[in-house]
Amino acid sequence: MRTPIVAGNWKMNLTHQGATDLARGIAEGCPENGVTAIVAPVALHIPAVAEVLAASPVLLASQNMHWAESGACTGELAGPMLREFSVRYVILGHSERRQFFGETDEGVNRKAQAALAQGMHPIICLGESLQEREADRTQAKVEFQLRAAFAGLTADEAQRTIVAYEPIWAIGTGKTASPQQAQDVHALLRSVLEDRFDRQTAQAIPILYGGSVKPANFAELLAGEDIDGGLVGGASLKVESFLELTRIALGS
Ligand code: 13P
Known about the structure:
With 252 residues, this protein is an alpha/beta fold. Helix content is 44%, strand content 15%. The protein is globular and about 45 Å long.
């Protein structure tokens, strides 16, 4: 049984005060067991949010990470720096980073390997554009991204990794993939993982859905056999809606 996951990607939002207030509210109301709650503030807020979350069950993620441990990489963040602030997860290959910041499949793979070497869990994002969906290229696209991201990983490393299926056309648009559309892609991703590794490994890897997840649609998405949680943008920015998502996940 995979524990359901609610991961909040705060993207480039909130002030220092707003981020610590949100973290405090989530920490106070989050269920202790039965759901894994993760938040990803902007890097600048990680130390303050880490302090707020220290005695809570809520875990911290970074929104990105460089593959090198240190060096001449102006503007980047290294894994050991994140580890110093108890960051356990790292979102990699988000479509916004692929679209606007030149993130490639090869880079995602290098970062995933580096995160795993640091003892962190990569959250690997993938998904098709509207054009690709309409051209019936969804399966080919997500399979390609998945195989590229997991290149060179052992089954043990794969089991410490999370996949997030985020159809680009559903991000921040209010358009959610239907539960059936999402489940179909999740089932495909799991079958590719089984082909690449083995059944036990494929069954162990959580596959999250992302794209306009909110309390009103989360339960029906989670009903999909291969949908293990959500990677949530907008609805993760309010204490009540994030907590509602954790309660829905707990009841799933
Ligand atoms: P929204 O939930 O705002 O659509 O964002 C989804 C997302 O990109 C999470 O990483």
